[in-house]
Structure formats: structure tokens, C-alpha cells
Amino acid sequence: MNKAVFLDRDGVINSDEGHYYIYKKEHFALNQGVGEGLKLLQDDGFLLIVITNQGGIAKGVYTHEDVANVHEKMAQLLKNFGVVLTDIFYCPHHDEVEKCLCRKPGNQNIEKAIAIYNIDRNLSVMIGDHNRDIEAGKKSGLHCYKVKTNDNFLPTSVQIVKDMKKA
Fold first, then answer.
1. Hey, which residues are catalytic here?
2. Pairing of strands 125-128, 87-91
3. pLDDT value at position 95?
4. What is the pTM of this model?
5. Alpha-carbon gap, residue 148 to 120, rounded angstroms
6. Mean pLDDT by 10 residues, the chain (167 residues)
7. Distance, CA of 125 to CA of 140 (rounded, Å)
8. Would you say 19 and 26 are in contact if contact means Cβ atoms under 8 Å apart?
9. Which of the 8 DSSP states describes residue 55?
10. Is the peptide bond before 105 cis (omega within 30 degrees of 0)?
11. What are the residues whose beta carbons fall under 8 Å from the beta carbon of 150, sequence distance 6 or more?
């Protein structure tokens, strides 16, 4: 079985300061310590899986193509640190438009990733900056780390490696 780190995107991986939705490549910027922190986790054997709500699609603010373009830029920026994301799961729905099970705090996307990648819940974590991220992780039986929005990511990565060696 594999161990994984599930990551929220906006506010954790990238800065969402000044933007309600990040859907333009030019607005996408990694938060401090993300490249180094994800490399540390990857080198420790964790699969890196992004779980993100993208409700702006359902609201008609942006498209699936916009999300794909932002994810392409994210992958390019992370590649500069030697980081390769295992997968990205996103929910295109929004409660104001349509209900679903994949929008966090729902955990359908996490469960899908666990099944696809044969992930051991006891050795895996969820990192998020909102209660909905943590709630989704807890529903799936993951260790959860709530971080401050747009904060330096590296200390959390160091702590996870340390904590999970004890698990």
C-alpha cells in the first residue's frame, strides 16, 4: 500500500490573496516553501494528490479548460523543484448551483484517489486551510493538518515527515 499527502490547492499550494477564484495562469503563484516542502514529502515516499473545489465552473465564472491551464502552470512550477504531482482531483460543482458528494467537505474525490492508488489511510494526511478540507480528510480517516492560508508550507512538511515516522 502507498502513503499519500492530499492537498488543498488555493491558499495551501498557491496564494489566493487578492482573488476570490484563481483561474488565470497569470494569477497563479506558489506559496513560500511549497516547492521545497512537496519535494521533502515526495522524497519521503508520499504520493502527492491535490483535492480542490472549483465551484466557479458551476457558477459560469470560468471553464474546465481554465482549470486545466492553471494546473499545467502549477505542474511546470513544481517541476522546477523536482516535484511531480501524482494526480489532481477537482470538484466543478457548487452548492448554490448543484449538490454533489465531491465538493469538500464531501470526501468522494479523496475516496476515489484512495481506491485508484491503493493508499493506506493510516499513513496518509490531508493538508488544508479551511475546516471543509479537514472535515473531508477526517471522513476518510486521514491525519489532518490545518495550515494558515497563504503561509509558508515548509514547516508543515517537516512536521508531517517527523510525525508520520512515529505512526
1. 8, 10
2. unpaired
3. 76
4. 0.96
5. 26
6. 97 92 94 98 98 93 96 98 98 85 95 98 97 98 97 97 89
7. 10
8. no
9. T
10. yes
11. 11, 15, 16, 17, 31, 129
